[in-house]
Each structure stands twice: as C-alpha cells, then as structure tokens.
Write a structure and sequence with these properties.
Blueprint lengths: L17 H9 L12 H6 L6 H17 L3 H4 L8
C-alpha cells in the first residue's frame, strides 16, 4: 500500500499488461460456463456450434489485453500523459 492510500506497482507500468491487472482483480477471464460444459452450454442445445467461434473471439480478446501495457494510462491520474 502507498502512504496516502492506493497501491504501488511492483514493476514499471510498461511491463504490466491490462490482462494482468484484470486477472489480479477479477481472476481468470473466461466466457464462463460456455467452455466448461455448464448449464449455459447445455441450454444452447442446437447452437452448440457457437462454441468454437466464441472461443476464437475469447482468445483474441485475451491476446489484445495481453498486448496493451498500462503505461499509457498511468500518467493520466497524475495529470500528465505517460
């Protein structure tokens, strides 16, 4: 914890991805039951063919979040661009 509240980063902002931040706060990012055979997948029934396209979208979202560092956003809260 920082002196006046909040948190300090363990690494430089350019080394921390948006995906890491989201996972640290919310845990693993998954399209829930869809990929784990839960009730949502069972209720889709004939729409089971959506699983592969949605998995590809999910994977692309994860790659995008993993490619964006929080550096560009870090300075905004101090009133200066990062």
């Amino acid at each position: 914890m920082a002196t006046h509240g909040g948190y300090r980063l363990a690494r430089a902002p350019k080394q921390i991805t948006a995906l890491e931040v989201i996972r640290a706060i919310d845990g693993p990012i998954v399209l829930g039951e869809l990929f784990h055979g839960g009730s949502l997948l069972r209720s889709l029934g004939s729409l089971h063919g959506l699983k592969k396209p949605l998995k590809r979208i999910h994977d692309r979202i994860l790659r995008l979040l993993d490619s964006v560092s929080i550096r560009r956003y870090a300075g905004r809260y101090r009133g200066r661009p990062a």
